[in-house]
Amino acid sequence: MRIGFRQLFGIVLCSSAVTGIVQADDLLPPVTDADVERVKRDLAQPTDAQIERAIRGLHQPTEREIAATPAPSTPKLDALPKPATPADVDLRTITKGFEPAVKQALAAGAAMSQTPSLLVFVSFSMPAKTLARLVDQAARSGATLVLRGLTESSLKQTVLRVQQLIGSRKVAFQIDPQSFERFAVDRTPTFVLVRAGAQPVSCGDAQCFRNDAYVSVSGDVSLDYALEFMQRQAPGFNGEAGHFLRGLRG
User: Which intervals of the chain are annotated as region Disordered (predicted)?
Assistant: First the structure.
């Protein structure tokens, strides 16, 4: 009996739900022609005559009023605050301290056919003690220190570093990336001893030296050690190496 009662109860619930929906739809009022016309009037667009009347009703400025209106002024850039900048470094004053060394390097290049040349290829990434030792030995021997390029891509920074490094000593310094290629220098320090009377020859788009025109050695060693090593390994350069050794030893 309980089972039959539950089934009958379920049917009654479904019938009530359907009956409720039908009654709700019957309560919606029908849309008449008058309702449609009223909606059209509410959404009607203004005519051209109405727009023209609205424009005439707006106030139009006269020429006098336009002339009296102040024009926007352009900003005065000169009056804007300027950031404080430190005084620029005087490169002329800095370079004046080692002008004699530059002249010495130029003179050495001009006289390459009569005297041997000793080039010491260095970089600022080398240990400070190694750089300081080579600067001191180059000043006493007459060797030329060669850099590949500028420090931080700045001539000013490079000049400042060189000045701090050499101080008041007379040392020939050159910035010459082509010399690194000319002598196949791929590490620093590298010592290159060029024979007296050596003449450059064409090698592609650059100028090079014959293999028998120079001798080189690389390593973190002193200048006198490098020259003595050249004497032992390349006896044909004994005279050129001795020339710089004598200047180095005073």
Answer: 59-82
